[in-house]
Amino acid sequence: MRWIPKAKSSKWWLIAVLSALLTAVSLCGIRFGLLQHEFDGGIAFRFLILSLVLSFLFSMGGWLGGKLFWICSSAGLLLALIMMGVYADDSSGWEDLISILVFMELTAAGIAAGIVAELIRLLARKLGRHQ
User: Fold this and answer.
1) Where are the alpha helices (DSSP H) in 64-93?
2) What is the pLDDT of residue 71?
3) Distance, CA of 43 to CA of 92 (rounded, Å)
4) Could you tell me the residue ranges of all domains in the chain?
5) Rounded to whole angstroms, how far apart are CA atoms 85 and 2?
6) CA-CA distance, 44 to 103, in Å (whole number)?
7) Are 74 and 32 in contact (CB under 8 A)?
8) Distance from C-alpha of 31 to C-alpha of 29, rounded to nearest angstrom
9) Does 99 have pLDDT greater than 90?
């Protein structure tokens, strides 16, 4: 994991911005491309805000030293975007709801997995010092 920046590195904020842009473009691509909804600047702006919040949350975890949190959260977000696109292939109305629910669930699962991974790493370090 040498390619991941160290804690307190300013590179984390560049990663956050790039991740937010890629996430926002992906969300807009699914909504306005795959689902073929008419472009709405308000919805696109909300996607940008959601992307910024998630990306900066994940990068803040990495900036604080939680590399496993960042990896798991980002993997959950990537999987969420992929599955959102898969479930959004037919646009009868329910697919919109299902795809956003899948997105939220998988993103939350990635965050939870990252927290659990960091807790396990912390516990392993604590137990390793007492031996």
Assistant:
1) 67-87
2) 97
3) 19
4) 11-129
5) 31
6) 16
7) no
8) 6
9) no
